[in-house]
Amino acid sequence: TITTGINETPMGSYKEHLSDEERWHLAHYVKSISREMNTNVVLKSKPIDGEIPMDLDSGTWEGAELTEIPLAGQILVKPRLWNASINSIIIRSLYNKDNIAFLLEWDDRTNRQDEVYSDAVSMQFPVKIPEGAKKPFFVMGDSSNKVYMLHWEAHHQSDMHSEIKERVVEDSKYLDWEGLAAVEESNAKGIMNYKLQSPDNQGTEGVGQWEDGRWRVLIKRPLFSEDKNDTQFEKGKLIPFALTIWDGSNVEHRGKKAISSWYYITLVTQTPKSIYGYIAIAI
Predict the structure, then answer these.
(1) From CA 60, how far away is CA 71, in angstroms rounded?
(2) 27 SS3 class
């Protein structure tokens, strides 16, 4: 393709501009940064015994199953996004006796933010886990099926850092994230029916890091809550989820976003060691 160009497109041939050796170097480089998309319909959340640290570089995530989910521009309602700049996102999940966590990763060359156009990611779950195939509308639910949403935003996180710095100067001591939230919990019953949950019901933690053209965002929340508007993460169930991404540098905001269809997550359970004893006895 580099040698011949692509007919009927602006990309012409590079045969006269690069030597044969240079074109092969370029082809090998492109191959080296490409990968096959490993997409599974069901993401398995792995159980662990200890704490789930809010540390993006923690070795706790080693061995967690991943799936890469394709994304497409939202073209169903105005304002539409015809050319999404982010076309996939990788997700992993872990859980322990108290919490469930999600590690989200996607490519973003710019990390350019402002108050309106900010990089962001949102996770969406049905409030009521469906027993059959019927699910809410995959873009923010519908009037009969409410969805629960977890929304992380880069600009919001930078505001939090600013607030922490101001308080550190005031109090002359180190302050952590306590009392601040990088993830907003909300509900929706359709695109025009969106509501942020009250501050008392905001129990989700989140942190993001952009490095070398790639975002990594860690979101952690309790498995169960007393709020009837939250999704309850029950073991062994197939829980539908969908993802939404905004790229600030591509002036994406509100309805202008990249979206996925429904996928599933299940909290796998560990096989009791006694089972192997029963098998041995049976044999």
Answers:
(1) 27
(2) helix
Q: Which H helix or E strand runs over 277?
A: helix 273-282
How far apart are the C-alpha atoms of 137 and 264, rounded to whole Å? 15
- pLDDT tens digits for 115-171? 889 999 999 999 999 988 889 999 999 999 999 999 999 987 765 555 434 443 444
The overall pTM is greater than 0.90: no
**How far apart, in Å, are the Cα atoms of 117 and each of 9, 92, 155, 246, 253?**
30, 26, 9, 8, 6
Residue with tokens 């180190």: 174
Distance CA 233, CA 223 (A): 5
Give SS3 for 207. Answer: strand
Give the C-alpha separation, 108 to 119, whole Å: 9
Residue 217 structure tokens: 């965002």
Residue 77 contacts by C-beta under 8 Å, 6 or more apart in sequence? 139, 191, 255
Distance CA 120, CA 106 (A): 11
Q: Taking the CA atoms of 109, 115, 117 and 120 in sequence, report the sign of the dihedral they define.
A: positive
The 3-state secondary structure of 142-166 reads ECCECEEEEEEEHHHHHHHHHHHHH
